[in-house]
Every structure is written in C-alpha cells, then in structure tokens.
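Ticket reopened. Same input as before:
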Amino acid sequence: MEKMVNVFLFGKRYQVPESLTIMKAMEYAGYQLVRGCGCRNGFCGACATIYRIHGQQELKTCLACQTKVEEGMYVATLPFFPLVKQVYDIEKIKPTQQIMMQLYPEIYSCIGCNACTKSCTQELNVMQYIAYAQRGEYEKCAEESFDCVMCGVCSSRCPAGISHPQVAVLARRLTGKYLAPESQHLINRVNEIDAGDCEAAIEAIMQKPLEEIKELYNHRDIEK
Amino acid sequence: MYQYTDEQRESMKKVEATRQERFGKALARMSAEEKEQVLASFHPDYITSAYEELKVGPNKGGKVLHELADLLQGRSRVLDMEIDLTKPDYDVDVLVIGGGGAGSSAAIEAHERGANVMIVTKLRLGDANTAMAEGGIQAADKPNDSPAQHYLDAFGGGHFKNKPELLYKLVTKAPEAILWLNKLGVMFDKEEDGTMVTTHGGGTSRKRMHACRDYSGSEIMRTLRDEVFNRGITVVDFTSAIELIKDTEGKAAGAVLMNMETKEILVAKAKTVIIATGGAGRLHYQGFPTSNHYGATADGLVLGYRAGAKLLYPETLQYHPTGAAEPTQIYGALVTEKVRSLGAQLVNKDGEAFMNPLETRDVTASSIIRECKERGKGIKTTDGEGVWLDTPLIEMIGGEGTIEKRIPAMLRMFGKYGIDIRKEPILVYPTLHYQNGGLDISADGMTSIENLYVAGEAVGGIHGTNRLMGNSLLDIIVFGRNAGQSAGEKYKSVEVQELTLSHVQAFENELKEAGIQSDMPSPRLLPDYRRQAN
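Engineering reply: fixed in the latest deploy. New output:
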C-alpha cells in the first residue's frame, strides 16, 4: 500500500498517494479539470498554483503538473490572472527604448522587491529581465525570459502591477524580428522557390516509378 | 527526489562503464529489410486485435483502433437537444475550430485577407500540442539542401504513402513558413552571422531542423497567440465545437458550440469552417501513455466524419520512441528527439548501444519495444519498463554547457526530480505522440465537403503513415496558413442557405441500421482522469 499524505485543496482535506503531482491529486480527489489544466508537461502555464505547507511561513508557487504533493500542503490554483496585454502592430513598432515606455510604462514603477523572481515557476530571473526591458536592452531581456511559460504567477505577486510575461513577449518579438541577424540563406531559398527554380527537381522525383523512388531513398547520402 | 531501484542503479553503472568506448563510435543503420521486420513484429500499428472495422460513414469497412471507433460511431451530443439554428449567436466569415498553431496561423491569414474571423477553442488559445513541440521545425534552406531532398526524406519516412500534392506543398512552402515566423518575431537559434543553427532529426538526410532551444513550439505558439490578439481576432475560449452545421445545400456553414464550464449551447454561423483541432493522444490508444496535450481527443475527426468527410490513414499512429519512463510523475512525457540529434545513444540494460538512435521514429520505437519484450534487455520501471537514453554523451560531444544551452526544458523537467541529465542517463519508453492520419484534404485545404477546411494534426496524408520529427510544426504553419488563405478568399463568394443539422440525424439512422446503439457522448472533448470508485 502506497503511503498517503494529507493535502488541502482550497482548504478541504483529501488523502492522496504521496507519489502524485498536485494535478493528479486533484483528479484522484474527484475533480474533473477544465480550468487550470493544459499540456500537463510544464510548457503551457495553465496550472499556476500557490501553496503553503502547514506550519511554514513561506508562500510557495509552482506548476501543479510538475510538483509532487507534500504532507500538509494547502493548495489554491491560479487558473487565470488578469495580465495586461497591450496591442501593437509588429510591422510598425521599432526596437527603441520608447516603445516599452509607451506600451508598458508600469515597468518603471518596479520597486525592486524581487517577489517576481522568487515566485517564478521556471526559476527565471524575472526582475532582471524587467530591468533589461526598462533600459531597452531587448536582446538581454529576451535571453533572460526565454523559458517563460506565461503562467502569470510573477504578476500576481507584483506590487507595481507589472505584466511581466507580456513585457517579455514584446521583447522577444522585437529581438526575433529586428535585432537578431537576418538569415541570408533562408531569404535566398525563398527567392529561388518563388522564381520556380526548385520545382523541376521535385517533379522529377514525383514522376518516377515507386521502385525507383525507393531505390533513391534507400541509397541517398546522409550528411554527417 | 527520485530514488533509483537497485536494479536500475546496477544497470546505470554498466552504462557508465561502456560510455567512453561508445563515445564517437558510428552506429550502423538498419537495412530496408531489417526495418520492415522490426516494424511488422513490434510496432503497435501491427497489432490486429487493437483494431475494428467501421460499420458506417465514409470509411465504412476500413479499420481503426477501438477507442476511435467508439467515438466515430458514438452518440452525437446534439441529438437530445433543442437547438434553434435560426438565431445564431455568432455570424462570421471564417470559423476556426481549435486554438493551436494551425488554427492561429489560419486565423491570421484569413484576417489578413479581410475576413471576419472567429477562433473557438475548448481551453485557452495556445493550449495545444504546438506549445509542447520541443525539437524543431524542418525546412530545406541550406545550400547543401533542397525541397526535393526534403521531399525524398519525408516520402521515405512516410513509407511512400504521403499524398504527393500535400507533401509537395509542405516542402516547397517550408522556407517561406520559417521566414514568416521569423518576421513575426520568432527567435530561431542562429549563428552570429544569421545562419540558422540546424541539426538532424530521425530520418533526415540533411541538417534542416531549426529550433528555438527546446522551446520551439512554445516560442512559436506564444508569438502566434500574441499576433492573434494584436489583430483583435475574436477568440471564444473554454468553448468546444460539438457538431458541425451544414446548410441546405450540404455545405459546411458553422458549428454548434458548448461552453465547457456552464454547458451553455451557442450557434455559430459561418461562410467557411476550418477544423484545426489537433490530435488524439488523450484517447490512450492501446493503453499507451501520451506526450499530448489534455485536449487531444480527436474531436475534429469525429465532427468531420459525421458530416461526411473521409479519413485517410486513421489507423496509423506515431509512438514517440522516447517518452519518460521514470520518474512516474512524468511517465509518458516527451523527451525530445533533439536529445538524440545532439548525440545521446539508446542503451540497454547491459550498457550496449543497440541501434543507431536516429532511425525514423516508428523504427526506433519498435526497436526499443523489441529490446524490452523479445530480448529481455529492458530495465524495470514503476509503470513498466524502459531503456537508457545516455544524455551525458551530449556534453562529451558538444562540450560542457551544451545541455543547458540547447535543451534547457529537459534539464529542468528531470532536474525537478533530482536527476541531472548532464551526469546521469534517463529511462525512456515509447509514448503515444502523433496522429499520422486524419481528414482527407486537397491541396487547397478543403475536404470533400464544400467550405469545410482542415489544418494541422487533424489532416491525414501529409506525412504518409509515419511523420518525421520537425515536419509537424512545419505542417501546422504551412497548412494552417494555406487553409486560412483559401478560406479567406472563398468566403467572399459564399452565400449561406438555411442552416441544418439533418446530417446528424441521418448518421444516427445509419448507426441504427447497422445495429449500433451507443451511449458514448461524442466527441469526447476531455479525458476523465478521476479515480474510479473501487
């Protein structure tokens, strides 16, 4: 018999096997999840969760699909948090420092409490990437925030009302579109295809009898 | 923290002992005959008892897995409802069902053409397999590569069953898809001079796998989602499509929607409909665990099938060779193929590398199953058995720091359980990953039902009977955009006639005639993981 632990889902006690994640514990207890459940693999940020272990002071945050239950765990899920997403035209904006000032001026109200970083479910240095955004250093902001799953926990803990994940998306899009170097070989290939230079080679394959195509496939050279 | 069993620990020592010897050693590829043999003997698609014949519908007489047959021949959710189709709650030009990468790409392109677009999605926008795709996206954009080479790789990988006109579109539109994403701001891995960092995937003959570290799909999805919101496209979330609506001319003309929380029923009228509902991993075919998203329940296949659209290759599934086998908390979760692209080998209980780790996915998965089931060289795990994926080799090949730089999500996923993949190998076993088949479309994305389009994993035929790594992220972009472009033009000449659900009743009558009386609600919408009462 597997060892059971007591967890408190929204304050109510359930006994669940200790090997379960918080998400599976909720299902074990009888919840049919609609909210707060997405990829179940730590990529989508749907299952942001806040918990406290009985007798401990610290409020902890996590993704429910990635975290094992513990004895005395008090759990509240955060399936939605009202982040502010500003609307812009990616073709028209430019990667200048002003754009953050226009769209997300509240980042300059950061008081440096670091609650965002402490709460990040991905262990990112959130306050640091906001600092980069303040200074218009978008490549650094993009780099630092790259693993963000936009669960919104950081924003829920922010006294300045910053929507960190949305700031990070903007910085990454600016970086990907304007700041990272262009890929000339990619542009060349698109031009070649548009000019019709690549069709003949494919059509030559398509027109061959199946046995010849198989032969071609089985003996194709493979790049080392 | 994960505690290895004694058997696992003993076996891991053998893996460590042989690592230096295996390092840098070329592992032989299988011959065509060897591949055929291992597939026929060990691939789950060849287990005939898992299949049954469909009794009604466009694929009558064809075989599908029991779990899918139950839904295709299940009971429509609208049969017991009074639905007034004369007063639609929504009236749009293009209705996109599904909020993943394909649906979002389609919506953006249709919007670009001036259409009034609406996305309906049963969870949130971006809750989709797209966001979980780790490894990368293929495109032949390097000088030593060509769309023809890409075609040959995917055609052979798909066992020469791919629909040629769809594959042609996939490979010739691939570079443009990458450029489109890049211009939207997707951060691809690049060298200082802008050259894309590309690697091999299983079955590729050129290094054409583009990536955004191992958050490729996540980076693409969050960018597309941001763009959908920037454009002000209507997104109706936490709402599923439970049936397609046709007009009296038999053309697709909307969908019956259900609020997932309140169960409120809504009617959406549309000039064109795009199904972009993704895959089916959460049906757990043959009891396999899955790497798929919570909502991957084949809803679009069911809706399309009842409306009269044909399925192509619905019997072929992809079992990703490397799902996590331990710890049990992440059983079935995807361990990206990129781990093998970067040099990790598949190693058995005795520390032997038993195959070239970059064979196609079906061959690799079958070989792992053979290693465990026939040769007895698997390692026992909490939920079954597995083999080692020797990740420390990656750092030996690429240098210290390679894992953190190139596959940070993997480092994090196992790190949470105290497993440092830079120092220790991990245990893996095949996991249900991808629906190779789906609804049959022509090159413009339309099914045999006029004004009904399909994009993404719900399409069948692009990948034949086995998809290569990196061709799915590619397909959702290429065929998502394609469907959006087609529907975004087509709607301009559509005049919707009176709406009807008569095809649903007609299908029900066919079921009765075939002697099938099911009470299984269909489509499934979500899996049920609640503990069953003892």
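Chain A has a mean pLDDT of 96. Chain A has three domains: 4-77, 97-179, 188-215. Please confirm and we'll close it.
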